[in-house]
Sequence to fold (262 residues):
Amino acid sequence: MFSFFNKKEARAREPSVPAAEINPILSVLDHCAEAFTFPMLDNGYVYLAASRLSVYHSSDDWALVIEVFGFSPRAGAPAVAVHTFGSNLRNRKSRGDYVSQEAYENYISNNEYNEFKTFFPIGGDDIWVNADDNESVMPNTSLYLRGKVFNLPDDTAYLNHGITLEETSPQIYELCRYLGSVERQAVLATDDERRYNVPDHLSEVLSLDDWQHPDIAAGEKPSSIETFQQIAQILLSGDVLHYHPTVEGNTHWRHWPESGLL
Fold:
């Protein structure tokens, strides 16, 4: 395993050196962004509804988890995608997940420090999804949210949370955004889901509901963003005092109007 904690460079104090060269974690995140394994909040295939970022640290390892809850019409169900980046991941995909040994080895070599897992917090879609339009919601119904019955709101409730309905009936992505507002903890990952790829010996040191996220589609890299420059320092040191943002967060779905439009 490559040790991020043993890499010391004298030029780290030189302001002219790119951040990704100073901090190897930023280099990992940039590589993932270039490979499109770093989450894009304006993913054209997923309507963004809610997100969260968590930082984990130990004396030997680090992990960064970004959750994205939303709705993909192609997948057909609301889901929370858990993107994990770290120096020592667990519960990795196995040989059985791939058609050949070569395909498996290619996956591991191309995703050495990142893993991805999807969870589904909402059930009962045979009741609340419109059978005639599987992207809209049946009125006056309920769903199961983490196993508990949740009665769907009337149309006026959406507007109270800044959601203007585009059609006569609420669309599933609009319901997801409503749930992200009123049941945020339930639609995002549970502790076990969030730590699915994070080893037990790492401790959570920081959790953010809003932060400055790079516009991957526009070519921005994590290393160019203040949030991730500061988080990378926390990942190496464990000192949360490195996080002192001067730029407002942009992770609310209103900031990413292109999400889900493909």
User: Anything to note?
Assistant: The longest strand covers residues 47-57. The chain is about 25% helix and 20% strand.
